Automatic annotation (TrEMBL):
PANTHER family linked: BNACNNG10540D PROTEIN, F-BOX PROTEIN CPR30-LIKE
Record-given protein name: F-box protein cpr30
SUPFAM superfamilies tied to this protein: F-box domain
Residues of the signal peptide: none
Provenance organism: Nicotiana attenuata
Coiled coil spans: none
Classification via NCBIfam families: F_box_assoc_1 (TIGR01640)
UniProt-listed Pfam families: F-box-like, FBA_3
Domain F-box: 5-50
Length: 388
């Protein structure tokens, strides 16, 4: 045996990929800067597969109200799915022992789930003039409170948020869209001026990314995909668009939303989501069916495809129509999980054309796809990290 020490680069590529897949994102960033060889290994599909396989995707639930006790709650719950491919059945597994009661540690009030990335969960607390952002890792029970941004949130001004990850710089960012209502003193017309504010986890301060010429309104929080955060917006002509902020260069682009929207759709019951690795729009404006449009080629308007049409049978009419519906996840066998308003989950089977309601929790809740991780917030030096 040679006495010469073996360098890390002498190891076979599959072993290096296995090692790198077990590292936290901040350490992977350092690894990528060592050499072009290491950088290319982190771009391999096997690296991504290993990272995700170690923490199977689940659904995180933020329950904000209990109908049983008729009181506010602030509880995190975690769902996993068991699929029996032979029987074609699906079961939602919820272990109450894994629930996290946040009320003793966080303010009681409007505590809303913004999104989840790599095990980090972003919450917005808005109540009595406060407009705070918390970043939490449920597995490590660590959290940090982001400093408040400029621009007081209060009627008639509006705020929208997004939470995402820049895969090039390995940075996690919170995006705040502050919409200030402006009154034209000459003609009395009113319009919103939107400013984009960005907070990079670990930097300790907000920055302005300039003004945005869209109306975000009170729609749902932004959708994270491909290193960009996406929102459904209107332009000055009331056209329905999708705008996205690139988390790398912090520039906005926009492109037309899915077909089907018209001014007659009021309220506009459309929501933005992710179908596999594609943007999708869930449209519940019709009285007797739901449509899911999928953008097969990112940013290409002609690639919108009507992927799913759910015909509403009479017995489902009372709990499906006339409310906002959110697409949460496409399961491995193609079955799709939806959230109806803030009340319950339901599954759609694309082959059997069936709907199945899962009345798992009583009360109101928000939900997001979630991959648990042990990444520590303490790796971000500028953040004051607490443990609950």
């Amino acid at each position: 045996m040679s006495d010469e020490a073996t360098s890390l680069v002498d190891l076979p590529s599959p072993i290096l990929v296995e090692i790198f897949s077990r590292l936290p994102p901040t350490t992977v960033l350092c690894v990528k800067s060592v050499s072009k060889f290491f950088l290319n290994l982190t771009f391999e599909s096997e690296f991504s597969k290993l990272v995700h396989s170690r923490s199977p995707a689940s659904i995180i639930i933020n329950q904000s109200h209990s109908t049983r006790t008729r009181s506010r709650t602030n509880t995190l719950k975690f769902l996993k799915f068991i699929i029996d491919t032979d029987q074609g059945t699906h079961e939602i597994c919820h272990d109450p022992n894994s629930d996290l009661d946040l009320q003793p540690y966080f303010p009681i009030g409007s505590f809303s789930l913004v999104g989840s990335v790599h095990g980090f969960v972003c919450f917005n607390y808005f109540s009595n003039g406060a407009d705070a952002i918390y970043i939490l890792n449920p597995r490590t029970r660590e959290y940090t409170m982001v400093p408040e941004a400029e621009g007081v949130r209060g009627y008639p001004d509006l705020v929208n948020y997004g939470f995402g990850f820049d895969p090039v710089k390995f940075e996690y960012k919170v995006v705040r869209i502050y919409q200030e209502e402006i009154c034209d003193k000459i003609n009395g017309s009113r319009y919103y001026k939107s400013e984009c504010q960005v907070y990079t986890i670990g930097k300790g301060y907000w920055r302005s990314a300039g003004h945005v010429m869209f109306c975000f309104g009170c729609r749902a929080y932004g959708v994270n995909l491909y290193g960009k955060i996406h929102w459904l917006v209107y332009d000055v002509n009331r056209n329905d668009l999708i705008c996205s902020l690139d988390l790398g260069n912090e520039l906005f682009i926009s492109f037309p939303s899915a077909p089907g929207h018209s001014e007659e759709n009021h309220p506009n019951l459309r929501s933005l989501g992710v179908f596999g690795r594609c943007l999708c729009v869930c449209d519940n404006n019709a009285d007797d069916y739901i449509e899911v449009w999928v953008m097969k080629e990112y940013g290409v308007t002609s690639s919108w495809v009507k992927e799913i049409v759910i015909n509403i049978i009479p017995e489902c009419n009372d709990w499906v129509c006339n409310e906002m519906i959110y697409l949460l996840k496409v399961l491995d066998d193609g079955v799709v999980l939806f959230l109806w308003r803030e009340d319950f989950l339901f599954l759609h089977h694309p082959v059997k054309k069936t709907l199945k309601m899962f009345d798992v929790f009583e009360g109101y809740f928000l939900a997001s796809s979630h991959v648990s991780s042990s990444f520590s917030l303490k790796t971000f030096e500028a953040e004051v990290v607490n443990v609950f």
